[in-house]
Amino acid sequence: MPGPSPGFPLAGTVALKPLRPGTVGVNVFAPAFAGVVPPDMGYRMSPLLQDLRFAMRLLRRTPGPTLIAVLALGLGIGLTALMFSIVWGAFLRGLPYEQAHEIVAVRRTDPATGAISIWPSLHDLDDWRNEQRSFEDLAGYFTGTINISDAGSLPERYSGAFITPAAFRLVGEAPVRGQVFTEEDDLPGAPLRVIIGYNVWQERYGGDPDIVGRTLRANGELGEVIGVMPDGFEFPIVQDIWIPLRLNPVEVERGQARTLAVFGRLKDGVSAQQAETELAAISQRFDSLNPNLTRERGVNVLPYTDATIGPDARPMLFTMLGAVSFVLLIACVNVANLLIGRALMRGKEIAVRTAVGATRRRIALQFFAESFALALAGGLLGIGIGHVGMVMFNSSVAGTDPPFWIDIRLDGMVLAWVLATTLLATLAAGVFPALQATRANTHDILKDEARGSSSFRLGRVSRGLVVLEIALSITLLAGAGLMVKGVLLLNRIDLGFPAQEYFTARIGLPDNDYADIDAQRQFYDRLLPRLQALPGARSVAITTGLPGTQGGGTGFTLQGQQYASDLDVPGARWAAVDPGFFTAFDAPVLRGRGFGPEDRETSTPVVIINESFERRWFPQGTAIGSTLRMGGLQSENDWRTIVGVVPDRHAAGAENEDPEALYVPLAQAPARFVSLAVRATGDPMSFTSRVREAVASIDPNLPLYFVDRLDRRVAQENWVFAVFGMLFGVFGLAALFLAGIGLYGVMSFAVSQRTREMGVRMALGAQPADVIRLIFRQGMIQTAAGIVLGIMPALFIANQLSDLIFQVNPRDPAVYFTILAVLLFAAALATWIPSRRATRVDPLDALRAE
Predict the structure, then answer these.
(1) Residues 354 and 363: beta-carbon distance below 8 Å
(2) Counting Cβ atoms within 10 Å, is residue 625 exposed (0-12), middle (13-18) or buried (19+)?
(3) 209: helix, coil or strand?
(4) Least confident of 126-135, 295-304, 340-349, 436-445
(5) Which segment of 609-618, 639-648, 733-742 scores lowest on mean pLDDT?
(6) What's the pTM value of the predicted model, to 2 decimals?
(7) Residues 6+ apart with CB under 8 A from 57
(8) What is the DSSP string of 211-250?
(9) Worst-scoring range by mean pLDDT, 21-25, 194-198, 287-291?
(10) C-alpha 317 chain-centroid distance
(11) In DSSP terms, which residues pair with 645 in a beta bridge?
(12) pLDDT (tens digit, 9 = 90+) per residue, 97-107?
């Protein structure tokens, strides 16, 4: 029979590997590659590739632990990638414009109150533009609804921006058709010119190529379309239509002008701090000339995305990113423990390889190759988990109109993050077993017929890592428990009325057509009976603020009380309502009277308060007949007589405790934007077309918007609690799962390593309960140590996430006791299973095992 081909050694043979001059060694990997890789290729193959292939063969031999390790890393990498994509999309990527980091927002600050983001006034913008040298230019805007109507189409409401012409030049975006505003378009009294968004052009006007020059009505005023912005342009937040500001600071008394959101583009080489210093000096000079200014205010220059989303969002999201990194760290600890177990089982192999010439570096690379193989598989799984999470997250926030630049997707930066975390996981998981294995005493291991002298050290490291897992887990579980409890409380809120039975919509009366309170009152007087006459309408209300949603706020002064300054003036929520409001929302007047047809513009100004207001300011129950005035100390509003007290109805939104609230008659308060509420018999949304027809019968140019059931409106306002609460809940459950399997793995391995000891104990008369108690105590000691180490980080994380925790104290003892009980149960289960297995060891088999 012919012998084997010279190029292919027989499977199972050992091939000599060329080593450094003067050394002799054995290539222990040759059996794995024999019959597959030619020898000459083996010589050329890099040691790292050899180690990686060998590691994959080893991992395939233990599919159960390998799959658990891959799942653990997949969860850690996937959840971390999801949270990073949220942070990246919201803040780090920035605006989708050239040199976007130069675009910054400018806000005023108030050291007296600690406010760091106050919108500047029109005069502030004018002062800064004329004096500054740090910016290419500054622009201002405010956002609001814009009703569009023209011949042949139903009126529609769009989100719009009233903006200064410099804005388009600063962001560097040109229209796809037409032109942008000029300085002449921004003059008071100039003919109205309008720029529309790409979606408006396509959806409302069918992409009409002759759209430029077309006439339409915007908020009741005739205007000319002069441009169409590119697809995706929704600056400054999520706008569809742009109108010139058309305000002149010269025509308005200083201190009385409206406020604006101001932004600018920094010149090359100018830092935000330098620009802030310059603008502060300008403001100080002009503020000193204003006798109405009661206190000094500063200037804050900050990234545009931070200013728009709010000052609390960045630290909150970064805290969540840091917290979810604990899941990845726990996964790495699990993999490290898996590799530590392998190191214990392969002690003799490593000793032999070291004895015949393998270097510590070569041994360490083998362990890193195993951790890299696991991390690579976990990274691929993590990409899938992260992608699914991003799809679900985008779906959950789709109806909240997030800023246009927030794009949560699996882009190049997120993939780079996954790659970085995969490499980090490789290092984190491989470093302990590699270090411990390379420190082993070869001589002692070769003499030890059992396990080798390094066993104790490796076991101690493994147990320490489990303690770390449990500490990290309780940190995540505490935050998750608090947030999930908040979500449960949010879902159980009793608004005092069945919100799911109400159809709601909002309308805005254009200033050009409804400039005074009389015109507005006439419109509401005509609309109300039409709504009440709709078939199936049980009750109807017109109000500036719906219960359960965010309402307006106002300062107020009580007659007879003294206030040192405006800082001492108390505040309350307020709403203008029609006489049927309290009946419509099951809020019967408790004391005094409700509003009636006699409460008109020309009659005595009146106000109704809620129970919280009465408890706070009239503890003796003497509210009826008292008077108050809305506004600050300089307010010129009328004094209003308190005529009634009604129950609390979440006037500040469902997420807030019921605050003090004031209600004034709609007929006595100018209100161009109101909500309509119809309590329906049957499906509330069936009223959509009928309410729209009732409004159009009075003014065909008025569209309805925010059309939805009231319960969905309330839920939409509270989406941040629900979405991030459940997201953090997933983090906590993942941490609990990983910590549980980590503890189980360590205890199971410890039991397998102590088979002889268990056999000896039972041969000498130990009972199964004694064995269980021994192992159980060890597991519980590790769990207790992890709990002690994790309590302080848990409290810190909970405090950082307090803005996301709905009506739950960050130190709520019930949550912490529940978390401890769950963690102890999981730890007990993870310890009990291997301890029970230890009691089934046959003493004779155990003694013969080695």
Answers:
(1) yes
(2) exposed
(3) coil
(4) 436-445
(5) 733-742
(6) 0.78
(7) 32
(8) -TT-EEEETTEEEEEEEEPPTT--TTTT-SEEEE----GG
(9) 21-25
(10) 6
(11) 591, 609
(12) 999 999 999 99
Instruction: Judge whether residue 292 has pLDDT over 70.
Output: no
Q: Find where tokens 């009636």 sit.
A: 596
503 within 8 A of 684, measured Cβ to Cβ? yes
Give the phi and the psi of residue 582 in degrees, each rounded to 5.
-70, -35
Q: What is the per-residue burial (b if ≥16 Cβ within 10 Å, else e) of 374-404?
A: bbbbbbebbbebbbebbeebeeebeeeebbb
In contact, 309 and 302? CB cutoff 8 Å: no
Query: φ and ψ at 653, to 5 degrees?
Result: 100, 155
- The pLDDT of 514-539, averaged and rounded, is 92
- Strands (E) in 745-801, as ranges, are none
| Whole-angstrom distance, CA of residue 832 vs CA of residue 486 | 33
Query: What is the 3-state composition of the chain as percent helix, strand, coil, each rounded to the nearest 5?
Result: 50, 15, 30
Mean per-residue pLDDT of the chain = 82
Contacts of 242 (CB under 8 A, 6+ apart): 160, 161, 163, 181, 194, 195, 196, 229
Quick one: tokens of 519? 């015109």
Q: Judge contact between 400 and 99, C-beta under 8 A.
A: no
- With beta carbons less than 8 A apart as the criterion, state whether 441 and 694 touch: no
**Domain ranges in the chain?**
1-45, 49-96+312-453, 112-296, 472-496+710-850, 514-698
The residue ranking higher by pLDDT, 844 or 469, is 469
Q: Give the DSSP H/E element, type plus range, for residue 609.
A: strand 606-610
